[in-house]
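Predict the holo structure. Ligand: pyridoxal-5'-phosphate.
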Amino acid sequence: MSGLEDLYREIILDHYRNPRNDGELPTPPAQRAEGFNPLCGDEVVVYAEVDGDKLRDVKIAGQGCSISRSSASMMSVAVKGLSTTEVREVIRTFKAAMSMHESQLESDEALPGPRADLSGLGDLAALQGVVKFPVRIKCATLSWNTLAQCLDQAEQAAGS
Amino acid sequence: MGRPATLRIRGVRPHLAPYTENVSAASDTLAESAGRQPSVGTSRRPARRLEVAAIKSDFPVLDRQEGDDLVFLDSAASSQKPIAVIEAMDHYYRTSHANVHRGVYRLAEQATNLYEAARSKVGRFVGASDPSREIVFTKNATEALNLAVRSWGRANLRQGDAVLLTEIEHHANLVPWLMLAEEIGVELRYLRVMSDGELDLSQLEQKMTGARVVSFTLCSNVLGTLVPVEPIVSAARAAGATVIADGAQFVPHMRTNVRELGIDMLAFTGHKMLGPTGVGVLWGKAEVLESMPPFLGGGEMISDVRLDGFTPAELPLKFEAGTPPIAEAIGLGAAVDYLDGLGMEAVRAHELQLVEYAMRRLAEDHGDRLKIHGPQDPERRGGVLSMELEGVHAHDLSQVLDSRGVCIRAGHHCAKPLMRCLRVGATARASLYVYNDESDVDALSAALSEASAFFGLR
Ligand SMILES: Cc1ncc(COP(=O)(O)O)c(C=O)c1O
Ligand SMILES: Cc1ncc(COP(=O)(O)O)c(C=O)c1O
C-alpha cells in the first residue's frame, strides 16, 4: 500500500504490539500526567519519577493508536535514566522534527521530510515518516507533551 | 476537478430525474422488510427505488479524478453537496445578494424573498404548521441546541429542577446542559444505554417524574440507534415535561413530521443533509418559542431599542440576531428540494437496504474479527456503522482505508460518555447516504481485509 510503509515501519508496529515500560508507578514519588487527543479519543498517562536531576523511571498507561502508543514506548526507552536537562533536549528535538511550516498545511501534496533530524535517537527515527501525515502528528507528540508536563510538575514539587 | 460534462447543468435541476417509479424492482430484502413491522420513519408501502448511479453524478466531488475513486462513507460527519445546492448559492451571489430584512431597494427585497422562501421550504420539509414563525435559522445544530437550552432553560428552570437526557447524546446536546447545570444547579438524569445499543426505557416513567424537560437525539451518531420517540413523548406528556429533540442524524435520512412526533422543539443542521455548512435550524412550536426570551442580542432581533432597553422582534427574527447565513439558508432550501425530489421514504428504504447488505457482507467477510456496535436489526438503526476491527486501532484503520480512497471517521464521534459506556476509546465509523451503493460497501470490506493483512492478522 503506497505511502503506508513510510508511516508504519516494522519497528513502530513492534513497539505497538510490545510496548516498553508499560504500566504505572506509585505517586508519589512519581509524577502522573494525562494527555488526550481530542481528535481520536486517545488517552495517555505518563508516570515519571524524577530524583534530583535525574529521570529515574518512566511508565506509560492508557490506550491509543499505533502511532501514539509506539511513540510513547520509544520515548520511554529514549529518556529513561537521562538528566532532566537532557530529557528536555530530546523532547525539543522530537517536537521540532514533528513540526512543519504553516504553508505545508495548505498543500495537498505529500510533505517533504522533517526539518530536525531524529537519526541520533535510535528507534525514534522510524517516526520521521509521520510528518507526511499531518493529522497523525498529534498522535506522535501526545506522550511527549504529557512527559513535559510531568517534568514541570516535578520541578514545581521540588521548588515548593 | 469535476468533468466538464457535469457543469452544463444550470440552475436548480429538476430533481425528479434520479429515481424511477419501479416498485416491482424492489429487492427481496426490501419486499421482505415491507412485510415486517413498520419501523420509525418507514411507511408500509414499498418506497420507490433510488437510482444511485444517477444520484452519484449529481455530486461533483465524487468525480474527483485522483488515484482511487472516492468512496465517501462519512456523511454522518458531513454530507457531500449536489450541483443543485452549489448552483443555488452561486446563482444567489451572482444575481441577488444584499442584506435581508433591511433595504427597501429591489435587490434587498429579492434576497429577503429567497431567504424567506428557504425558511418555508425547510419548515414544510419537517411538517411545521407555521414555517414563517416556527423555523429559526442558526449556524448549525449545536447553536440551535444552545438556543433551546439557554433560552428555554433559563426561563423555565430553577435550581433543583430535573432534566432528562440519555447516555447516547452528542456533546451538542450534553455540554449546553452541563453548562446550565453549573450555572443554575439543575439535576441531570440519564436514560441508560444497554449493551445492544438500545436505550433502557424500563425506568422511563420513574426518571421522567418531576422532570421539567427531556432532551434526546432521534438517532445516535455513533450506534445508529433509532430512539423510540413515542414512549418518551408519552411519558413526557404525562409528566408535563417539554420535549426537545436533536434531529441532526435523523432529519437527513427519515421522513420527519414534527407534529406526528409530538415534540416541542427540533434541532438539525444543514451540512449533514446535502446543504452547506454554516446553517442549522431550530424548529419550535410557535407558542413555545413565543414564551422564550431572546438568545443572542443585536440587530435584526429587535423591534425597538432605546438607551435603557429594547423590545424584541416577532418570531422568528427574535432569535436571529445579526446578519444571518443568507446564501447558506438558500442552499439548504435547494438541498431540501433535492431530498423531496428523491422522496424521504425512498431515501430511508435505500439506506435500510444498504445497511442490511453491509451488515451481511461485513459479517461474511470478517466474521468475529469485526464488531459492529449498536442494534443488530437494521430496522432499528440508521445508516451508521461503528466498527472495531480486532487488533487494529480505529485511527490506524481509517489511515489504511484512506490509502484506498475510502473515507470513514475514526474517534469518539463527540460522544465521550457513550464511548466510556461502550468501554472503547475510539471506533471507526462508516456512514451511508443517498449517493452510496453496494459498490461502496464492497470497497469498504475489501479495504478492511487489506488493513487486517497489513497489520499482520491473517
Ligand atoms: C447527533 C448530533 N447532534 C448534533 C450534531 C452537531 O451538528 P453541528 O456540528 O452541525 O452543530 C451532530 C454532528 O456531529 C450530531 O451527530
Ligand atoms: C457597527 C456595526 N456593528 C455590528 C454590526 C453587525 O454585524 P452582523 O450583522 O454581521 O453581525 C453591524 C452591521 O450591521 C455594524 O454596522
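Helices of chain A lie at 4-7, 10-17, 66-79, 84-98, 102-106, 137-159. The beta strands of chain A are 31-37, 42-51, 54-63.
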